[in-house]
Amino acid sequence: MVDAGLFVGGVVVTLFAGILNGSWNICVKPDAPALVRAVEPEGEKEGWNYDHAWMSMMSSAIPVNLAICFAFIKPSSLFDIVASSTTSDLALICVFSFLWGLGTYGFGLSIQIAGLGMGTTLNMGVIVVVGTFLPLLLDVQSKLNTASGYTIIGGLMICTFSFLAAAKALALKDSDEASLTPPPTPPLPSTDLEDPTSASTIELNVVTTATKPPPPSSLPPSPSEHSTFTKVTVCVVSGILCTMLQFSFVFSEDMRNIAETRYSVPSALSSAVTFFFAITICPIPNVVIPLIKLKRNGKLHYLRSSPHSTSNYLKTLFLMALPWVVQSHLYGISAASLLGPDYGAAVGWPLLIVTTNVTGLVIGWKFLGEWDLAKPETIMYIKFSLALSVLGLGIVSIGGLL
Questions:
Q1: Residue 36 phi/psi, 5° resolution?
Q2: Where is the chain membrane-spanning (predicted)?
Q3: By residue range, what is the domain housing residue 378?
């Protein structure tokens, strides 16, 4: 049994990790508050866009992660641990870390096209179902074909319905926004008037002023260029790829054992061995893809030439890279040490997912106005989805304790 104080501490740390996990991507939203926004507002052509900020964040994540890993494990010990591993294990860790990187890029893309709230909810919905079911498949006899396994599967089925309800909410939200967007104002016919002071000219000017559309900031958002099906598909693919991090942990288990037994690294910190690879390799596609896009569209130079470059670099470092890396390590510490093996996966994992979902939805609702045009039926579906998610994850948690 875990100590009560450690259990409470583990819950608090997991809650904090979930808040960080659901909020670190607000900086790449053009409609975010200026204080935290690392991209130019909607409609601005000059300066940083999503690709600049994402590439900067992922580049910053590497030194942040290395600093944390070396603080947990001495560099010389860490390199010895790596040297003692097999080539096949190292190759597989790298492959699955790269796939996780592709999933992370897709996660950022889904935040852009589906919104921070719904992008987070749909991704986490896939991650919790696939990420929880995979360990059961890896050990069918002792995990899947048991009362615990059947209970967990029951919870995951409810989580699947939660995902479907969230997808329905996204479809209704897209429909709500499209129905409230005014049609474009047709241009007035050109009139060739010789006397600018004539009555007809004055009348035309009055008509022009009266029919001039309001500024873009006062109009409802225009319909998304991406269909709901595209948004959900991106979330599904990225969510599946994000679960590949689990395989990096599977194939680095021997290295973590060596760290704990030979170098006396506490079990709470041994996950730094896995993250040493994962968060070093994950940024590769997340830097290369935006770099290629920026070079093609001729906007790479804004990384330096934008008047907000310095502040944007600092925002992507302290408000994106640092929270993203820290929440990964915090959950590892909480699950391995504070909550212990009995409660780490059973309590910590569902709690992390729920906290991440709620944080993303609240930020999208309160700070980004993503639900301002949503009708009551749409709000009902997202609340229903969240309720199903909590119920399903609660059953998963019970199954993990059996």
A1: -115, -5
A2: 6-27, 64-84, 90-109, 121-138, 150-171, 232-252, 272-292, 313-334, 346-368, 380-401
A3: 4-40+48-181+224-401
